[in-house]
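Figure 6 in text form: structure in, sequence out.
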């Protein structure tokens, strides 16, 4: 029995050591061919009431490459809006996780705010960024 354990332990250690691959998400890895500028946000429309602002929009892949978040990493969009008294509200969402070259996908976000406030839709802004 000791002989089997003596042989089995090093074999399992070698299998574990060489059988597990390292996920390399560090800068300089294969991820990152896509940039923020490779996506365009289009057709933004809003409707609001009862403490929330619904935002409908489209994300377009402006490149000639298919985008897949598993290989390229995730991109997010942060929406911000102010109320007429100057308070700021925001929400943060993932963009599409797969998008073919030149394709567009419709998306939606909701910003919740204090129901007694009035949203100033003219202050609505967004920022697209790479998720870390």
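Output sequence:
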């Amino acid at each position: 029995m000791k002989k089997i354990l003596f042989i089995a332990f090093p074999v399992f250690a070698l299998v574990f050591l060489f059988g597990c691959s390292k996920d390399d998400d560090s800068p300089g890895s294969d991820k990152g061919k896509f940039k923020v500028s490779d996506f365009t946000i289009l057709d933004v429309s809003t409707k609001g009431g009862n403490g929330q602002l619904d935002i409908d929009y489209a994300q377009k892949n402006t490149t000639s490459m298919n985008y897949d978040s598993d290989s390229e990493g995730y991109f997010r969009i942060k929406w911000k809006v102010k109320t007429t008294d100057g308070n700021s509200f925001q929400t943060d969402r993932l963009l599409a996780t797969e998008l073919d070259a030149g394709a567009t996908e419709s998306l939606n976000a909701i910003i919740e705010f204090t129901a007694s406030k009035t949203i100033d839709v003219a202050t609505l802004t967004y920022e697209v960024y790479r998720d870390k």
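Caption detail: Strands lie at 39-49, 52-61, 67-68, 75-83, 88-94, 98-99, 104-112, 119-130.
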